[in-house]
């Protein structure tokens, strides 16, 4: 029981890479599509969490909330400021903790609903770079 609880409370570990922290997924969850993270300031956390049709693993510290997304979820998207896209789930965080456990064994939050809701919360128009001004 204690081992399971400790696994659920996992957070980040310092990587030594420019002071970034790697978000550690629970050992029972395998990120088959790779692992990146999208962060928003904590003031948007609860609102964003409640608007999404599905949440995967969500981490938080005092200042930021981080959603795990498949690797490459930044391709052809301009994530709105003040959100932050973190390749490899290496984030500029202080002591992030897993605050939301997925309902299944997939760590991922679907990136398109996350993106559209982040745009809406920040008052930013969605912008896809592929097909802009030309043929898709």
Question: Mind explaining what this structure looks like?
Answer:
The chain has 136 residues and is of the alpha+beta class. The protein is built from three helices and eight strands. It has helices at 2-8, 45-51, 111-122; strands spanning 12-14, 21-23, 36-41, 58-60, 64-69, 84-86, 90-91, 97-100. The chain has a five-stranded antiparallel β-sheet with strand order 6-3-5-4-8, with no helix packed on it. Strands 1-2-7 form a three-stranded antiparallel β-sheet, with no helix packed on it. A hairpin with a 3-residue loop joins strand 4 (58-60) and strand 5. The model is unreliable at 1-10 (pLDDT under 50).
Largest sheet: 5 strands, antiparallel
- Binned, the helix content reads 10-25%
Q: Write down the secondary-structure element order.
A: HEEEHEEEEEH
What would you report as the Rg, rounded to the nearest angstrom?
A: 15 Å
Q: Walk across the major sheet and give the strand order.
A: 6-3-5-4-8
**How does the overall form come out from the CA principal axes?**
globular
